[in-house]
Predict the 3D structure of the following.
Amino acid sequence: MKAAIYETYQGSITIQNVEDPIPKEHGVVISVKATGLCRSDWHGWMGHDTDIELPNVPGHEFAGTIEAIGKNVKNFQIGDRVTVPFVCGCGSCRQCLSGNHQVCDRQSQPGFTHWGSFAEYVALDYADINLVKLPEEINYITAALLGCRFITSYRAIANQGKVSGGQYVAIHGCGGVGLSAIMIAHALGAQVIAIDINGETLDFAKELGAIATINARGNTNIVEQIKTISHGGVHVSIDALGSPNTCYNSIANLRKRGKHIQVGLMTGNHKNPKVPMDLILANELEVIGSHGMQAYKYPEMLEMIKNGKLHPEKLIDKTISLKESTDALPNMGNFDHKGVWVIDSF
Ligand SMILES: [Zn+2]
Ligand SMILES: [Zn+2]
């Protein structure tokens, strides 16, 4: 098969011909039809992820059809249209048995713990637990957007934040995660305030339903502005970027008993950001993480896509080829485009 491979961190990515993967007894091999470019892949290529063994094939949000299947897989067959969450569970650890596959103790993540989906084929373990059947109404390119940023935002807003109609929600950082979160919170009836450093991105945030936007570039008054708009602070706030500033502001702009949800990755020397613990105590704030979403939780989200409440396809900025991804991935550190890029030719 053809695959995009890097052999050193921050080194060149090349298209190589490598052996096709073979499914394990409980696994499948998927013929990849579409796969998204995510900043987590860029973090991996930068050398920020200790799970990666070189050489590596990136890619962890994708959709396709089952090409080969292990003998112990019961619920799927060859030809099924499927997608997966980026965190795949083992099905038998304490976390999985409690229904929390998204924090599985033995989790696998394509593109990180094994070769990912920037390739014609990708192997997945424990297929019965991790695969999600795609409704006919949802095409591969749209489905490829779901597996990482969209499900993480969905879980952050709907399950972790329990956002309800009328609440104020702040979204700090409007990349793929932030834009997804704006769309989902708006669909649930929340009043969304979007914060970013890019004016064009903020215009797009408004199109997706934000009631107000704040340009953070050179702005030292962000928390106060959010508190004014939300009449005293937001109910739920999300750091969708993952930086010390956005994390701090996302906690500091909460109203009493509000919830901060960390979705943006904190890596390298951002691992231990400054946190306003005085406010957390005095105002009984909650600080919560959101890390993917279990495969069995997909149906309610897929239903909202099918019935037109959510439009993940609006987040697509561009589709590119596997070859073009070899330049596009290293450039993801630059934040120079709004929306998501998807590889749809291999
Ligand atoms: Zn597990
Ligand atoms: Zn991702």
Remarks:
- Residues 38, 40, 60-61, 86, 148-149 surround zinc ion (ligand 2) (CB under 6 Å).
- Residues 142 and 313 are 5 Å apart (CA to CA).
